[in-house]
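Lab notebook, design round three. We kept the backbone fixed and only want residue identities now. Task for the bench partner: fill in a sequence for the structure below.
Input structure tokens:
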């Protein structure tokens, strides 16, 4: 009887230890907060070190999330710029906006005419803010394979210049990108 009690206590403690370890793993965050800003916070994904921007409060479609300006202007695109004109690519100021990553089903839009980040759909606190990179870049400096997981995922992201008219009709684009798309469409009609 004593041996059975010792065995039972051992098994009980072992299961308790495993359960606590499992709960600790579940409670371990996937992200660590790097910086806080009025509208959101930058968080670093622990598995790969990539930074993301998460909402600190709710936003409705059409709400202005933040105003921005050009931190720097360059003739060539980089992975940190958005395009505002032919051979005009800007870095974002405030800098934390650079951590709004790509998604094929975005919830924000960079309006480069008004210089505002605008909500495209309802955003709840702790939602990651994302935008559609080709909405603000004609040809990407660093094309990439997208793994956003959205049913709308396009796979290869190369810039607005590579989108079909059907795909174009599903997204909002900056005024500059709209002008580029219109120029290309008028050239095709002439040809």
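Proposed sequence:
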């Amino acid at each position: 009887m004593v041996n059975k009690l010792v065995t039972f206590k051992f098994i009980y403690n072992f299961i308790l230890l495993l359960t606590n370890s499992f709960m600790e793993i579940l409670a371990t965050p996937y992200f660590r907060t790097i910086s806080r800003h009025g509208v959101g916070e930058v968080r670093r994904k622990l598995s790969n070190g990539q930074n993301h921007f998460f909402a600190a409060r709710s936003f409705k479609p059409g709400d202005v999330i933040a105003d921005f300006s050009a931190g720097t202007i360059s003739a060539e695109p980089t992975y940190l710029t958005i395009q505002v004109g032919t051979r005009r690519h800007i870095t974002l100021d405030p800098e934390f906006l650079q951590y709004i990553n790509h998604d094929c089903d975005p919830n924000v839009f960079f309006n480069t005419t008004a210089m505002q980040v605008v909500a495209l759909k309802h955003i709840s606190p702790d939602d990651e803010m994302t935008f559609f990179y080709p909405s603000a870049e004609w040809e990407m400096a660093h094309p990439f394979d997208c793994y956003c997981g959205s049913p709308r995922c396009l796979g290869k992201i190369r810039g607005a210049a590579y989108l079909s008219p059907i795909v174009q009709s599903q997204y909002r684009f900056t005024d500059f990108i709209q002008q580029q798309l219109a120029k290309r469409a008028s050239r095709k009609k002439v040809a």
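Keep this in mind before ordering anything: The two ends are 93 Å apart (CA to CA).
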